[in-house]
Design goal:
Layout (H helix, E strand, L loop, with lengths): L4 H10 L21 E5 L14 H10 L4 E3 L5 E3 L2 E6 L5 E6 L13 H11 L4 H9 E6 L4 E6 L6 H5 L12 H4 L16 E3 L9 E6 L23 E5 L4 H10 L4 E2 L7 H5 L4 E4 L6 E7 L9 H10 L2 H6 L7 E2 L26 H10 L7 E6 L3 H16 L4 E6 L1 H7 L13 E7 L27 H8 L7 H18 L2 E7 L3 E4 L2 E2 L14 E2 L3
Parallel strand pairs: 1-10, 1-11, 15-16
Antiparallel strand pairs: 2-3, 4-5, 5-7, 6-7, 8-9, 9-10, 11-19, 12-19, 13-17, 13-18, 14-18, 20-21
Helix pairs in contact: 1-7, 9-11, 14-15
Amino acid sequence: MSISRRNLVKMGIAAGASISIPSVLRAQTAPTDARTVRMVMGELSTFDPILTTATMTGNHGLAIYDMLFSLDSKMVPQPQMVGKWAVSDDKKAYTFELRDGLGWHDGTPVTAADCVASIRRWGEVPSGGKLIMERASDISAQDDKTFTISLKEPMGLLTEILAGAVTPVLYIMREKDASLAATEQVTANIGSGPFKFNHALANPGTSFTYDRNEKYVPRHEPADGFAGGKVVNVDRVIWENITDQQTALAALQSGEVDFHLTPPADLYPAIESDTNLSLQVLNKAGDVYFLRMNCLQKPFDNVKARQAMLHLIDQEAFMRTSFRPEYTRTITSFFGNQTPYTNDENTGWYKKGGDPEKAKQLFKEAGYSGEKVVILQRTDWAEAGNCAQLLAVTLRNIGVNAELAPGDSALGGDRIKNKGSVESGGWSIFITCESDYERSTTLSNPTLSANGEQGWWGWPQSDEYEALRAKWADVETLKERQALAREMQRIQWDIAGTVLLGSALSPIARRKTLASLIEMPSLIAMWNMQRVPA
């Protein structure tokens, strides 16, 4: 009997050994290995960070673009590209002056006109950006380094929205790129950030290469979250797309790669037993897993069917499909577990282990009569795919005609835009996740909206909820926003546009020779990290 390469890798991991595998990297011309970091990051299929909410595209943008303001480790916005800024006495006019030393990767200087165009394009997509555009009477460049945002009424959260780390993020692009419609993809990949995208070494589906931007001028402050000085300590970073998890671990063990973004929980023991490797949680508050239903089509156009899903879910069981228990938590607040807006309003639906009988009753009250429920199952994201499989079984157990529709991110990304019935290529349920922090970004995060067909996938609608969300930018104190959050959560659990599956910490795996990683939610920063002696 012949032994396949995959089985050989499995055998080595089972024995706790370090496997030597053929290099996937030697064919590339690279700087000295000591100054190159190789990271298993997953597939990057869309480069334009305004065109998609994909986290991988957000990571790509964080490397090659820069931001006007960035969040520090306490989630407080700090100037990044902005050198000086001021607010008028009536709090309606903001003036921003760019700091010195900002330049595009093509050698041209960053100008205020670039910033204005970028704000306007970004302002077409996320709810926070749309709010700024609605309230702005003018956004214009005053000279090459200065621009203003003039508002019809004060908006104290302006810089917080500009600094948001929720995709799509306000990355500053060249005016020529940002002049494209938000629905038209920017493909140039030319930013002003600490890394340059290496077009010559781009190998879609396999790897992408980022080189240190030697002309980048970091801020003088020390790195603090996504804020402060973006100092690059390596010459090159190569993003690998190794889809087989055991192969990825073997590459990490052998030193072929230095970082693995999403090692599955069943491989944690092999990582923990290897003295050269370490697990590290970069997002200390964890990720929130949730499902969205197509509220426009049967059966989930009926609110009782959506409420049934709240009662159906056994969060601990769903999290056990992919995570060790010590890395998981249950969650009942629409606004996350560890945010300033976490609350317990209208959470009576939660029951440990779920309540299948209550769910079955609600489906009956909704008039469910055997309609097919199509669940999009990610085949390139194990955690979401595992949850989808359990969900299908759980629904079938209460008599729902559930069917899985397997596909990768590209296939699911196309289908998810279809608002039609399952018979016309639409869908019923999909599963995703986002950082706990993102559940607090009420104005910026599209998943927190309830504006129907104008909103995020699933399209739940509540005018009452949206009226409260519109007040978010007007109230001045945290206490007032917390009161709004309670009312908004009451409505959300009534309309049940989102159903929580649980919360999990997802440690990355790295070689111990890779240190000083930025610990922040949502996105992965490549600056500040450095190689250290073994």
